[in-house]
Amino acid sequence: MNLKRLSSVAALLLLAACAQPNLPQQNSWQAAEQVQDFSADGRLAVKVEGKGSYANFDWTYQNAVQTIDVNTPLGNTVGQLCQDSEGVLAVDSKGKVYQAETAEELSRQLLGFALPVQYLHIWADGKRVANAPYKILPDGRLEQFDWTISRTLNSSGQPKTLQLENAKFNIRLVFDTVNHSLDKNGQTRCAARK
Fold first, then answer.
1. So which residues are the signal peptide here (predicted)?
2. Using one digit for the tens of pLDDT, what is the confidence trace for 102-161?
3. Which residues lie closer than 8 Å to 129 by C-beta, 6 or more apart?
4. Rounded to an integer, what distance in angstroms lies between the CA atom of residue 62 and that of residue 35?
5. What is the pLDDT of residues 4-21, one digit of tens each?
6. Do 45 and 62 touch, CB atoms closer than 8 A?
7. Edge-to-edge strand list for the sheet holding 169-179
8. 3 state SS for the chain
9. What does the alpha-carbon distance between residue 66 and residue 64 come to, in Å, rounded to a whole number?
């Protein structure tokens, strides 16, 4: 099977997975006092002004260190984003490291626009960023930092989807697994730091 055909099949599988019915959206969005450590994996779809792309992800939030690996459908890592107490860094597929103090600064530097990566673990946990302006819409979605956030849960009460939207972007994460049983002696800083 050639790569173009494989990409088409993968895109169809992603669309089918996104179309599956889920339980109702989160509707309370309590202020985040603390977010429980977790690891998760799944698929990520991004639409920027009508043009879309997709990838797989492996995501760990442990000891206040957040690491997101972005992978091809075949499992090759094309990039890593990591945030810890020292700042944020991104590592591309060739091992080149980019650093900034905040995720917004780094995404603006690399992509030309700010993405709310530093809040994803809070929103995925069904909470809102404390001490920041927000609005709960009548349908239960959260508005915060110029993003509209919605979340659905699976039958176990774990995140199934997390969707972020604004005027230019639509970002959708579809979770395959979420695990809260992590070794407490895990990483305390980004592994790519020297």
1. 1-21
2. 888 888 887 777 788 889 999 999 999 999 999 999 999 999 999 999 999 998 888 999
3. 31, 32, 119, 122, 144, 145
4. 9
5. 433 333 333 333 333 334
6. no
7. 97-100, 87-92, 77-84, 65-71, 51-62, 38-48, 169-179, 159-165, 147-153, 142-144, 135-136
8. CCHHHHHHHHHHHHHHHHHCCCCCECCCCEECCCCCCEEEEEEEEEEECCEEEEEEEEEEEECCEEEEEEECCCCCEEEEEEEECCEEEEEECCCCEEEECCHHHHHHHHHCCCCCHHHHHHHHCCEECCCCCCEECCCCCEEECCEEEEEEECCCCCEEEEEEECCCEEEEEEEEEEECCCCCCCCCCCCCCC
9. 6
Cα angle 179-90-167, degrees, rounded to a multiple of 5: 85
